[in-house]
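Checklist before submission:
- one chain only
- standard amino acids only
- sequence pasted in full

Submission:
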Amino acid sequence: MVTAGALHAGSRVLLPIRRTFSTPWSHVRSHLHSTKPSSAPLPPPPRPPPSSHAASTRFTAAPTRRSGSIGSGVVTWYLGSIEARPLLTKSITAAAIYTVADLTSQMITLPPEESLDLIRTLRMASYGMLFSGPSLHYWFNFISKVVPKRDVVSTFKKMFLGQAVYGPIINCIFFSYNAGLQGETIPEIIARLKRDIIPTIKNGLIYWPLCDFITFKFIPVHLQVYTGLGESLLP
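Returned file contents:
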């Protein structure tokens, strides 16, 4: 049996030929299919070269971090020394401060043709080592026990004790020690004290009460000696 729609040609069966007719819209659809973007991701754009600022930052970041770590390490070591050996550390620090202060004072006041008086600098360093550093250490510890609070009233009490008790005593020691090392006799030292001690105390009252207020109010006891060193440098 032959499928319907077939044509007979002799003994052969001819099937009808299906013809397809193209329309104008078929070309448009094929064009759209051919131009449809692929779903594959596009390659990333090329990375721009590093700028000179970024390069310099990259090369200088490591030394900056290294210098910062060295500085913090020195501070940590010094604070540890204050905790472990407070008297020795403060005495050596006082000697170093007096040395720098005296050399600076001579470079400012001496005329260019005169040389530095290193003997005087040595006297100042020994005074800081033997008297100023130890006395400030014991004084601040003592006064923190006598007046332990840090409120405003207690701070003014500490200021008064510093100006009325410690200041005059340490100034007398300073003048006597330096005069004795310079060969002055006891009557000469007494005459120097009568001449210089009162003006020194008066000059100190101009600005040192403010420094004492900051010291007693805001600075921990184990670090107060460093602000107190300035008062000993006044003469």
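Reviewer check: The beta strands are 7-9, 12-14.
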